[in-house]
Known about the structure:
This protein has 10 helices and 9 strands. The protein has 253 residues and is an alpha/beta fold. The protein has a single domain, classed as Phosphatidylinositol (PI) phosphodiesterase (TIM Barrel). An 8-stranded parallel beta barrel has the order 1-2-4-5-6-7-8-9, surrounded by 4 helices. Strand 8, helix 10 and strand 9 form a beta-alpha-beta unit. The termini are far apart. The mean pLDDT is 95.
Amino acid sequence: MKKNFIPIIQRSYDDNKYHELLNKPFAHRGVHIYSPENSLPAFEKAVELRLGIELDVHLTKDEQIVVFHDDNIKRMTGVDAYIKFLTYEEIKQYRLNETDCVIPLLKQVLDMVNGKVPILIELKTNNNMKKLIPILNDILKDYKGKIFIQSFNPFALRRCYKIMPQYLRGQLSSFFINDHLKFYKKIPIKKLFFKHFSHIDFVSYNIENLPNKYVNKIDVPILAWTIKTKEDYEKAKQNANNMIVDNIDVLKL
Length: 253
Protein backbone atom coordinates (compact mmCIF):
# COMPACT_ATOMS: atom_id res chain seq x y z
CA MET A 1 0.00 0.00 0.00
CA LYS A 2 1.27 3.45 -0.92
CA LYS A 3 1.75 5.91 1.89
CA ASN A 4 -0.37 9.05 1.73
CA PHE A 5 1.74 12.19 2.06
CA ILE A 6 0.53 15.59 3.13
CA PRO A 7 0.83 18.00 0.15
CA ILE A 8 3.82 20.31 0.50
CA ILE A 9 1.77 23.49 0.66
CA GLN A 10 -0.31 22.04 3.54
CA ARG A 11 2.65 20.98 5.68
CA SER A 12 3.52 23.00 8.76
CA TYR A 13 6.97 23.56 10.24
CA ASP A 14 8.48 24.98 13.40
CA ASP A 15 8.01 28.73 12.97
CA ASN A 16 10.86 29.60 15.33
CA LYS A 17 13.22 27.54 13.20
CA TYR A 18 11.96 28.27 9.71
CA HIS A 19 10.20 31.64 9.77
CA GLU A 20 12.98 33.64 8.10
CA LEU A 21 13.53 30.91 5.50
CA LEU A 22 9.89 30.68 4.47
CA ASN A 23 8.54 34.16 5.18
CA LYS A 24 9.56 35.93 1.96
CA PRO A 25 10.94 34.96 -1.48
CA PHE A 26 14.68 35.10 -2.10
CA ALA A 27 15.99 37.28 -4.94
CA HIS A 28 18.28 35.11 -7.07
CA ARG A 29 21.72 36.79 -7.07
CA GLY A 30 19.96 39.92 -5.87
CA VAL A 31 17.54 42.04 -7.90
CA HIS A 32 19.56 42.43 -11.09
CA ILE A 33 17.16 44.25 -13.38
CA TYR A 34 19.17 47.47 -13.48
CA SER A 35 22.53 46.21 -12.23
CA PRO A 36 24.64 43.06 -12.61
CA GLU A 37 23.83 39.87 -10.75
CA ASN A 38 25.64 39.33 -7.44
CA SER A 39 26.62 43.00 -7.26
CA LEU A 40 26.18 45.38 -4.33
CA PRO A 41 23.49 47.43 -6.15
CA ALA A 42 21.55 44.21 -6.89
CA PHE A 43 21.61 43.36 -3.19
CA GLU A 44 20.72 46.90 -2.19
CA LYS A 45 17.62 46.68 -4.39
CA ALA A 46 16.62 43.41 -2.75
CA VAL A 47 16.92 45.03 0.67
CA GLU A 48 14.84 47.99 -0.53
CA LEU A 49 12.10 45.58 -1.66
CA ARG A 50 12.39 43.56 1.57
CA LEU A 51 13.25 40.36 -0.28
CA GLY A 52 15.61 37.71 0.97
CA ILE A 53 18.93 37.48 -0.87
CA GLU A 54 20.35 34.39 -2.55
CA LEU A 55 24.02 34.63 -3.47
CA ASP A 56 27.03 32.47 -4.37
CA VAL A 57 30.46 32.39 -2.77
CA HIS A 58 33.91 31.36 -3.98
CA LEU A 59 37.34 31.32 -2.38
CA THR A 60 40.09 33.31 -4.07
CA LYS A 61 43.76 32.41 -4.35
CA ASP A 62 44.54 34.56 -1.30
CA GLU A 63 41.65 32.96 0.64
CA GLN A 64 39.17 35.81 0.43
CA ILE A 65 35.48 34.93 0.01
CA VAL A 66 33.93 36.72 -2.94
CA VAL A 67 30.33 36.77 -4.15
CA PHE A 68 30.14 35.42 -7.68
CA HIS A 69 28.38 32.54 -9.42
CA ASP A 70 30.71 31.05 -12.04
CA ASP A 71 34.12 29.44 -11.52
CA ASN A 72 35.42 31.60 -14.36
CA ILE A 73 34.79 35.36 -14.48
CA LYS A 74 34.58 35.62 -18.29
CA ARG A 75 30.76 35.68 -18.64
CA MET A 76 30.46 38.72 -16.41
CA THR A 77 33.76 40.55 -17.02
CA GLY A 78 35.02 39.40 -20.42
CA VAL A 79 38.26 38.21 -18.80
CA ASP A 80 39.01 34.50 -19.14
CA ALA A 81 40.29 33.68 -15.66
CA TYR A 82 39.33 31.44 -12.76
CA ILE A 83 38.59 32.88 -9.33
CA LYS A 84 40.65 30.26 -7.54
CA PHE A 85 43.77 31.42 -9.42
CA LEU A 86 43.23 35.14 -8.73
CA THR A 87 43.84 37.26 -5.65
CA TYR A 88 41.16 39.72 -4.63
CA GLU A 89 43.45 42.61 -5.58
CA GLU A 90 43.46 41.20 -9.11
CA ILE A 91 39.74 40.47 -9.16
CA LYS A 92 38.58 43.91 -8.07
CA GLN A 93 40.18 45.63 -11.05
CA TYR A 94 37.62 43.99 -13.37
CA ARG A 95 34.14 45.40 -13.95
CA LEU A 96 30.84 43.52 -14.16
CA ASN A 97 29.04 43.82 -17.50
CA GLU A 98 30.88 47.05 -18.37
CA THR A 99 29.42 48.86 -15.35
CA ASP A 100 31.18 50.44 -12.40
CA CYS A 101 30.36 47.38 -10.30
CA VAL A 102 33.05 44.99 -9.15
CA ILE A 103 32.88 41.48 -7.71
CA PRO A 104 32.22 42.12 -4.01
CA LEU A 105 33.66 40.48 -0.96
CA LEU A 106 31.14 38.64 1.17
CA LYS A 107 32.12 40.94 4.05
CA GLN A 108 31.03 43.95 1.99
CA VAL A 109 27.65 42.40 1.30
CA LEU A 110 27.13 41.53 4.96
CA ASP A 111 28.01 45.07 6.02
CA MET A 112 25.51 46.48 3.54
CA VAL A 113 22.64 44.10 4.37
CA ASN A 114 23.29 44.40 8.10
CA GLY A 115 20.59 41.91 9.07
CA LYS A 116 17.77 43.73 7.26
CA VAL A 117 16.81 40.64 5.22
CA PRO A 118 17.82 36.95 5.39
CA ILE A 119 20.70 35.73 3.21
CA LEU A 120 20.84 32.33 1.51
CA ILE A 121 24.46 31.45 0.69
CA GLU A 122 25.27 28.86 -1.97
CA LEU A 123 28.67 27.28 -1.45
CA LYS A 124 30.79 26.88 -4.58
CA THR A 125 33.35 24.45 -3.21
CA ASN A 126 35.53 23.58 -6.24
CA ASN A 127 37.59 21.07 -4.25
CA ASN A 128 38.50 23.71 -1.63
CA MET A 129 35.73 22.83 0.82
CA LYS A 130 38.11 22.25 3.73
CA LYS A 131 39.41 25.81 3.42
CA LEU A 132 36.22 27.60 2.41
CA ILE A 133 33.91 26.53 5.22
CA PRO A 134 36.11 27.47 8.22
CA ILE A 135 36.85 30.84 6.61
CA LEU A 136 33.14 31.38 6.00
CA ASN A 137 32.38 30.50 9.60
CA ASP A 138 34.93 33.04 10.79
CA ILE A 139 33.41 35.77 8.60
CA LEU A 140 29.89 35.02 9.80
CA LYS A 141 30.61 34.67 13.51
CA ASP A 142 29.87 38.31 14.38
CA TYR A 143 27.06 38.82 11.86
CA LYS A 144 23.71 39.43 13.55
CA GLY A 145 21.42 38.76 10.59
CA LYS A 146 19.81 35.50 9.52
CA ILE A 147 21.98 33.22 7.36
CA PHE A 148 21.12 29.99 5.56
CA ILE A 149 23.55 27.72 3.70
CA GLN A 150 22.92 25.56 0.64
CA SER A 151 25.01 23.51 -1.76
CA PHE A 152 24.82 20.77 -4.37
CA ASN A 153 27.71 19.12 -2.52
CA PRO A 154 26.40 16.93 0.33
CA PHE A 155 29.90 16.58 1.76
CA ALA A 156 30.14 20.37 2.06
CA LEU A 157 26.82 20.40 3.90
CA ARG A 158 28.03 17.70 6.27
CA ARG A 159 31.15 19.74 6.98
CA CYS A 160 28.96 22.77 7.68
CA TYR A 161 26.98 20.67 10.15
CA LYS A 162 30.18 19.80 11.99
CA ILE A 163 31.82 23.25 11.92
CA MET A 164 28.91 25.70 11.88
CA PRO A 165 25.76 23.80 12.93
CA GLN A 166 24.00 27.02 13.97
CA TYR A 167 23.07 27.72 10.32
CA LEU A 168 20.28 25.76 8.65
CA ARG A 169 21.56 23.75 5.67
CA GLY A 170 19.82 22.99 2.38
CA GLN A 171 20.49 20.40 -0.31
CA LEU A 172 20.32 21.87 -3.79
CA SER A 173 18.98 19.35 -6.26
CA SER A 174 17.68 18.79 -9.76
CA PHE A 175 17.13 16.04 -12.30
CA PHE A 176 20.33 17.36 -13.94
CA ILE A 177 18.95 17.01 -17.46
CA ASN A 178 21.61 17.98 -20.03
CA ASP A 179 24.07 18.37 -17.17
CA HIS A 180 27.57 16.94 -17.45
CA LEU A 181 27.60 15.67 -13.88
CA LYS A 182 28.57 11.99 -13.76
CA PHE A 183 25.64 9.66 -13.13
CA TYR A 184 27.06 8.25 -9.88
CA LYS A 185 27.06 11.80 -8.49
CA LYS A 186 23.81 12.83 -10.16
CA ILE A 187 21.53 10.04 -8.97
CA PRO A 188 22.13 10.26 -5.20
CA ILE A 189 21.68 14.05 -5.23
CA LYS A 190 18.60 13.85 -7.43
CA LYS A 191 17.01 11.28 -5.10
CA LEU A 192 18.14 13.06 -1.91
CA PHE A 193 19.99 10.00 -0.66
CA PHE A 194 22.32 12.15 1.46
CA LYS A 195 19.61 13.79 3.56
CA HIS A 196 20.66 12.09 6.80
CA PHE A 197 24.38 12.09 6.06
CA SER A 198 24.32 15.85 5.48
CA HIS A 199 21.86 16.63 8.30
CA ILE A 200 19.87 18.89 5.99
CA ASP A 201 17.14 21.23 7.23
CA PHE A 202 15.59 22.04 3.84
CA VAL A 203 15.79 21.20 0.13
CA SER A 204 16.10 23.60 -2.81
CA TYR A 205 14.83 21.82 -5.92
CA ASN A 206 14.73 22.85 -9.57
CA ILE A 207 11.23 24.16 -10.41
CA GLU A 208 11.40 22.30 -13.73
CA ASN A 209 11.45 19.03 -11.80
CA LEU A 210 8.67 19.75 -9.31
CA PRO A 211 6.59 18.01 -8.17
CA ASN A 212 8.43 14.74 -7.70
CA LYS A 213 8.36 11.75 -5.37
CA TYR A 214 11.69 12.61 -3.75
CA VAL A 215 10.53 15.87 -2.21
CA ASN A 216 7.16 14.31 -1.36
CA LYS A 217 8.92 11.76 0.82
CA ILE A 218 11.10 14.17 2.78
CA ASP A 219 9.69 16.07 5.70
CA VAL A 220 11.62 19.33 5.48
CA PRO A 221 10.65 22.61 3.74
CA ILE A 222 11.07 22.79 -0.04
CA LEU A 223 12.34 25.86 -1.88
CA ALA A 224 11.88 26.06 -5.64
CA TRP A 225 14.58 27.49 -7.91
CA THR A 226 14.76 29.46 -10.14
CA ILE A 227 11.44 31.25 -10.75
CA LYS A 228 11.49 33.13 -14.07
CA THR A 229 7.92 33.04 -15.40
CA LYS A 230 4.35 33.34 -14.16
CA GLU A 231 3.99 29.62 -14.82
CA ASP A 232 7.01 28.91 -12.61
CA TYR A 233 5.53 31.11 -9.91
CA GLU A 234 2.14 29.37 -9.90
CA LYS A 235 3.82 25.97 -9.95
CA ALA A 236 6.06 26.90 -7.02
CA LYS A 237 3.09 28.12 -4.97
CA GLN A 238 1.58 24.64 -5.23
CA ASN A 239 4.72 22.55 -4.92
CA ALA A 240 7.09 24.39 -2.59
CA ASN A 241 7.15 26.30 0.68
CA ASN A 242 9.13 29.21 -0.72
CA MET A 243 10.96 30.22 -3.89
CA ILE A 244 14.16 31.69 -5.26
CA VAL A 245 13.10 34.24 -7.86
CA ASP A 246 15.07 35.48 -10.84
CA ASN A 247 12.33 37.61 -12.38
CA ILE A 248 10.77 39.65 -9.56
CA ASP A 249 8.02 40.92 -11.88
CA VAL A 250 6.16 37.67 -11.17
CA LEU A 251 5.83 38.75 -7.53
CA LYS A 252 3.81 41.88 -8.45
CA LEU A 253 5.53 43.96 -5.78
